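Posting here for the record, re: adenosine-5'-diphosphate.
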Amino acid sequence: MFLMEQAVTTISLSFDKKSPAFDTSPEEKNAPLVLIVEDDPAFSYLCASHLEAGGEEHYGSVQVESIEEALSAMQSQLFHCVLIDYRLPDGTGVDLVARICQEFPDWLGATILMTADGSEDIVADGLRAGANDYISKQNINAESLNRIIERAYEKVALRKELRRQNLELSNTNQLLQDRNAEITDFYHKVSHEIKTPLTAARMFMSMLDEGLAGPLTDEQAELVSQAIASCNELTKHFNDLIECTRLEAHKISLTYSEEELSRLITRSVASLSAIAEEKQVELKIQCDPVLPSIQVDAGRVVQVLANLIGNAIKFTEKGGRVAVNAQLSSEANDFIEICVSDTGIGIREEHLPKIYERLYQVNSTGDASTGAGLGLGLSITKEIVALHGGTIEVQSNYGTGTVFTVKLPISPIKDQIGEDSL
Ligand code: ADP
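Prediction output follows.
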């Protein structure tokens, strides 16, 4: 017994369980310490001797006989590796592996399970519980034991590196989220600040246009009307920006009312038919006359349709056609399907998955007659449709036209109704 105790080197290291002391320092690396958990003293001694004999490294060791002793040893000393017998007086080696993972989540040492017969089930359980490796007791000798510990170290080193990279990634991710929130907040504030003087400028311009400040020459009237169009365009951009930030912050809730869809479509095209006419694009509405009324946020649905119809007109050449159809969905009769189709320029297949992304434009040149966009319209549209519990799909043939299909539930889906709605 005296000899056995002599053979085992016990190195005492102080550490805090939650502190990075578990992450071995260079000095500690010089004296790697193995905890042997084995209730057969002779076998435990054998393992300690093999470790002493060493491979490239010389390991010190501490021997304990049970799960509880092992855990309490780990509380007071830093081990680089725990060598665990499967059968222990107060449980199995797999139980100990699981408890080490649970009670020492920051520990970056290796756990190696020793099995009597190398049973595959035990090995699988051990690895699943978090063991780094296993060895059959029959195969233990100085060389195999040292080799397996080295191999386990390599795995631990990889795990350490992975953990470091994960930490770095999550820090970067947090930083990006913070930056994103700052930017969103910034353009929300700026948009608001700019909208007020812009509204005033538009109002004064309208007064000039209406002759309230005296008659205008034809040339002056033309310039004023162009200035009003520019103000309207800017206002739309700022509204889109504000809308985006509100959607991102989940600050938009729907106010439902019972509506005739045909009425909403008529409202949506009200300001667009003049543009279509000017552009010589035929605008046709076809609504199934027996459509049931629908419960939606009327203003929001008008916004969705106006955006889709506006885009359809914008991307259709002179002489083309834009059609708006509404009918009961052929797939689910508690949904209404609205199709906005055009005979316009179409969208290449590779762009289709991206068109709902914020700020995405297939090409950034707009058409002055309907106003250049910011690439926000479809992303806002999609989010509003989703808030209603609906879907939006697009089909397009490059060069011949595009069809957007919006499906909206006739009655709102329960968990989508806000407290102040209906
Ligand atoms: P924008 O306001 O810039 O038009 P959107 O988000 O509404 O932004 O649309 C994104 C892009 O999708 C547009 O820039 C355009 O390239 C493409 N797009 C949308 N609708 C159509 C359409 N009906 N026909 C062709 N391209 C379209």
